[in-house]
Amino acid sequence: MLDDNKTVFHLIEGGSDEQDLALTLAENLAGDESIDMDDIAVLAQAEGIDPVTTDGEKSDRVESLVDDGVSVKACSNTLEMFDLTESDLVDGVETVSSGVGELTRLQNDGYAYIRP
Amino acid sequence: MLDDNKTVFHLIEGGSDEQDLALTLAENLAGDESIDMDDIAVLAQAEGIDPVTTDGEKSDRVESLVDDGVSVKACSNTLEMFDLTESDLVDGVETVSSGVGELTRLQNDGYAYIRP
Amino acid sequence: MLDDNKTVFHLIEGGSDEQDLALTLAENLAGDESIDMDDIAVLAQAEGIDPVTTDGEKSDRVESLVDDGVSVKACSNTLEMFDLTESDLVDGVETVSSGVGELTRLQNDGYAYIRP
């Protein structure tokens, strides 16, 4: 049906285990040589924002995802809510004006949605 | 790919924080002037049914969503399970015979799916 | 838009209540005579793997789903992580090399995604 393999992971939970799972799934998909992926995205929002900030305990894993070509996006509504700015984000993380707007846009563009 | 922006939020969790998040995301999308949305829907099911009932603590927020044109839907299997009837629902909330059937139908119809 | 009704349930949580809910939703959809479903799939992954193993407390419900024609799939990355093999799975459960790859493939193929 669609010609491309594109996937977005919704990183929205605050628990450390839940965040680990979301990051692991994105890492596994990015590292899986048997699947020809056209794009992998991670959308961080609400309590899921911590890993994409430089002070986040899991920021090194997000750095690696960015290095591996994963599109990591942070919801600017969430940044505002937590008094964060773009300068608090891991290098290479993009901001999007609305996390749910971006998830809608990506799904319209053929991305599969996965909520770990 | 698709010409319309349509989004359905799956309100399925019983925790107050999780319900707040789901409602906030729907409110934000409905109130975002920068996104031209053709439809926003909320599908309430299982432990997520409480906010769409008149006795629910968050029923005022659901009333506002309905007033703002959001399509709020309640799963009738869930109503039966909790001994609720249509008269227990906030004005303007529709019932659907199957919550998961409706989520399937909406996604087939081009709705993006978001599970807060 | 799409001609078929196809739905995949993502079974990824370890809590007993969450697993019960995922299985109940799949059972309800499979048993709903009012909806003409072309396929129903369950993708078990991470902490959600237990019900699809023969030793799992809810394995009888997964057996019934398989008997009812539901496609139940287990992520082989997860099996490896928990030192499980195909012989530990309920009869009729298929393995897929990547759970998230399969979820992407199914959504590309028109499956609606539901994350209970």
Give the count of structural domains of chain A.
1
Oligomer: homotrimer
Number of helices of chain A: 4
The termini of chain A sit apart by 25 Å
CATH class of chain A: Alpha Beta
Give a written overview of the molecule.
The structure is a homotrimer of 116-residue chains. Chain A has a single domain (6-114), classed as 3-Layer(aba) Sandwich (Hypothetical Protein Ychn, Chain: A), CATH 3.40.1260. Chain A is built from four helices and five strands; from the N terminus they run βαβαβαβαβ. Chain A has helices at residues 16-31, 59-67, 76-81, 99-108; strands at 6-11, 39-44, 71-75, 94-96, 112-114. The two termini of chain A are 25 Å apart. The mean pLDDT of chain A is 96. Chains A and C meet through α1 and β5 of A and α4 of C.
Question: What characteristics describe this protein?
Answer:
homotrimer, 116 residues, alpha/beta, five-stranded parallel beta sheet
